[in-house]
Amino acid sequence: MKRILIPLCLVLGSHVANGQRSYQFEVPDRLFVEGKELFSLKNYPGCIDKLEAYKQHSTDADLIQEADYMLVYAAYEQGRPNADELLKDYLETYPSSRHSDEINYLIASVHFGRGEYQKAIFWFGESNIDVLNPEQQETYSFRLAYSLLQMGDMAKARGYFARIEQVGAKYREAAAYYMAYIDYATAKYNTALAEFSRLKEIPAYREQSLYYITQIYFIQSKYERVVKEGEQLLSSYPDSKNNAEVYRMLGNSYYHMGDQSKAIAMLSKYVSSTDVPLRGDLYILGVCYYDKGNYSSAVNALGRTVGENDALTQNAYLYLGQSYLKLNDKNNARMAFEAAATSSYDQQIKETAMYNYALLIHETAFTGFGESVTIFEDFLNDFPNSRYADKVNDYLVEVYLTTKNYQAALTSINKIKHPSIKILEAKQDILFQLGTQAFANVKLDEAIDLFSRAITLGAYNMEARNDAYFWRGECYYRQGEYEKAISDYRTYLNNGQRNTDMYALAYYNLGYSYFKLKEYDNALSRFRQYVDMENSNNTASLADAYNRIGDCLFHNRQFALAEDNYSRAAQLEPSAGDYSMYQKAFVLGLQKDYQGKISILDRLIREFPESQYIDDALFEKGRSYVLLDNNKAAAQTFESLIQKFPQSSLSRKAGVQLGLIYFNDNQPEKAAQAYKMVISNYPGSDEAKVALQDLKSVYIELNDINSFANYANSLGGNVRFEVSEQDSLTYLAAEKLFMRGDNEGARRSLTNYLQTFPQGAFSSNANFYLASIAFAKKEYDEAKHLFGLVVESGDTKFMEESVARKAEIEYLSKDYPAALETFKRLQSIAENPENKQAAKLGVMRSAQFTGQPKEVLLAAEELLKETKLSPEVSAEARYARAKAYISLKQDSKALADLKEISKDTRTVHGAEAKYLLAQLYYDTNDDKNAEKVLEDFAKNGTPHQYWLARGFILWADIYIRQGDDVQARQYLTSLQNNYKGNDDIAGMIEDRLGKLKK
């Protein structure tokens, strides 16, 4: 004891002695002592005042250092924002201070308080815990442990917490809690469970301990314990921040226990109480809704589950598909099954989804891009031993018959090495359907090949085989191969189903084939069979058949019967009765009832002012007046014909007749004038040569042969009255070679003729025949030049055909401006009905290519006035008219045409029209009708995939405008996966998908 007390006395004595020696230091020392006492009492404001005052008067370095220590400590205790800076400044000022470990501890504590755990760990590491007092040591350990826990270093954290639990006082229970948490976090569930079970009896830790106990039971799949603990937790703490997670665990547990009603109740609370519910729980909620029959809610929950590319998404898509099916939303069901089927996480789910997807494709024919055939094949390739395999094989046959993308189906069938009878039956029908598509698109050679393949296949599908005979006959008829057409029509009639519209039509077509071959007796028999079978509602064809019956009887000189049939035709179809009326008048003339003939012709001219037979009617009317010796009326009629139809060949004949009438009426001057008009207006024509011959007689009558000679000489080469024998014989020899079909020999002889007689009487004829030979050999430049020479010659004999061929060459050469003008000329001079129609069609097409919508409209209108227009040309004219209206910003006027031609999407015009119709509705904000059109388009399909794809992009645009981005994305993605074309569709899809992402 003495050893301790003595030093203490010495210390006290020295302080007293010092106080006695120097009074000037009493005030600073007193401030230091008072400051230190206030520091020990934790009166930090007072402490700071005293110590700051002390530092102003003191020079004792040791005490100033001690004062600074207490000052920065006080700043820390006061929680000053810059406490860490003051503490660090102290260390920098006094690097060897005995308080450095404590100061480092305080700096670490400042960072800890700010949540800067990494910095806190660093500064705790700078402090030696052993030199700290016991309270600081416990705080040090807890704060360092907590910081390590926050930084993820659970092993070190647990070590410090364990030390606290053993020796600590203030933080013992907290350390025990965090140790339990670390055991939970590191999957030491039993250890954690034991500790949480102890801690739940401590009020401060009861709520969180119960929560983690529930979590552990949930992780261990002890669902009954989860329910017990979780329900107790909700009851005890109804407003806990953990309740959303408790709802989730309870919902999951009830689901696994088979109580889906309670699962729905709990999971619904969970979903509504969190902004981002977990996908797995949304999936379970969706499944529960599905099992309970609440399919709309199932769709809502499952739809929020499919954000990632994983097994959960695959499962969710399968349930989504089933839910949409229950809601009868087959389109969305199809896309959901497709999404599940394209994922490979679970092969069993993939199999089920792919099967359902295939069935929906089969039932809805959704896109028409070939998947309706290939999906079943893909299924069998992927799952050859599937329990669905037998059903798929049966469906596959049915798909072949129902898909509209027949080419894909045919390609698919051809891959089968040993096709069954069902498959071959389907193949025969598919070949037939492809043939009708080719026919509708005017690809006659292709259609004939497909129909022939269907016929050659055998008797698997007798209906398709017989119908193929009919349509192959149609192709042959269109190509002018009437003998082959007759053979096919007869085969069809021998095997086809009687009492059908097509069976009756076969007799009609057969009649026309015989009629074209001028076998009038056979044609008459077939037309009569047709009218006996045809339903009277089909008045246009029936009236036409009666006209043809009349024509056959006319050729057989059974005029009275012919007249009866013409009358019946006119009664059936008054609007197209001009031909019937004309023929009836002609028959009356043959029966020498000229006045009756004139009466009917007058009626024709009055009732059908736009008829193509007006010029014929005027000519026949004039001839009837001649036969009635009414020369005045005849002359007036012929003059009217020449004035109204100057380009008609009948006007040339009328001019000759007019000259003869005046000559017989002793009016030679008028006769000479009429003949000269024919010679002038129609140089090179046979009528001009006749007129020149008759004009010579007129001048002889006038006893003025010199005037005739002068006139004839003034004509130059335009009209050759006298032809040398060598000229004539050389030409005739060359012409015979051409007529025999010896084109090479004819070409040499005709060329020789033109070289010998460059201005020969038959030079125009020779140029025409040479042009025809070049055209047949597709030497279009040469042919165009030669036809042009014929046109320039003014010779009317081959004028019409030369203009027609020249226009055709210009069109084929894509010289559309020139073609347009030439077709217009042809339209003004054509008398051949085929050339008249070709001229209008050529004008319309050329105007389209040259961007002249008004010209297109006029030409299309003229075409559609034709009474006997083929369905293909009619559709094309309507299409052109609709496009012209759209180009002229008159969309509403295009509506009727688009509706009509879009009925047949086998043709490219029909397919585009379907799309344009939907686009028109879309542009006028009529989404309902636009969708209706697109649904029909998807259902019926088309071989022209581009326009169907455009339709699907428009469909996506509709959904985008309606704010349904999910639906839009599904349509675009499905199109992206299934469309195989190499065009601008991919870019359109990417553009829209990119905008949807944004």
Outline of this structure?
By secondary structure, this protein is mainly α. The chain has 54 helices and no strands.
Largest sheet geometry: none
Q: Any low-confidence stretches, pLDDT <50, length ≥5?
A: 1-25
CATH architecture classification of the domain at 278-418:
Alpha Horseshoe
CATH superfamily of the domain at 278-418: Tetratricopeptide repeat domain
Cα radius of gyration in angstroms: 52 Å
Summarize the amount of helix as a percent range: over 70%
Question: What is the CATH class name of the domain at 278-418?
Answer: Mainly Alpha
Specify the oligomeric state.
single chain
How many strands?
A: 0
How far apart are the termini? Answer: 86 Å
Proportion of beta-strand residues: under 5%
Tally of separate helices: 54
Roughly what is the average pLDDT, rounded to an integer?
Answer: 86
User: Quick one: overall form?
Assistant: elongated
TPR repeats: 428-461, 466-499, 504-537, 543-576
Organism: Parabacteroides chinchillae
Domain Outer membrane lipoprotein BamD-like: 29-112
Keywords: Signal, TPR repeat
SSE blueprint and pairings:
Blueprint: H1 2-21, H2 26-40, H3 44-57, H4 61-77, H5 83-93, H6 100-113, H7 117-126, H8 134-150, H9 154-167, H10 172-185, H11 189-199, H12 203-219, H13 223-236, H14 243-256, H15 260-272, H16 279-291, H17 295-303, H18 311-326, H19 330-341, H20 347-364, H21 371-382, H22 389-402, H23 406-414, H24 421-440, H25 444-456, H26 462-478, H27 482-495, H28 501-516, H29 520-533, H30 539-555, H31 559-572, H32 578-590, H33 594-607, H34 614-627, H35 631-644, H36 649-664, H37 668-681, H38 686-701, H39 705-714, H40 725-739, H41 743-756, H42 763-776, H43 780-793, H44 799-812, H45 816-829, H46 833-849, H47 853-864, H48 871-887, H49 891-901, H50 908-923, H51 927-940, H52 945-961, H53 965-978, H54 985-997
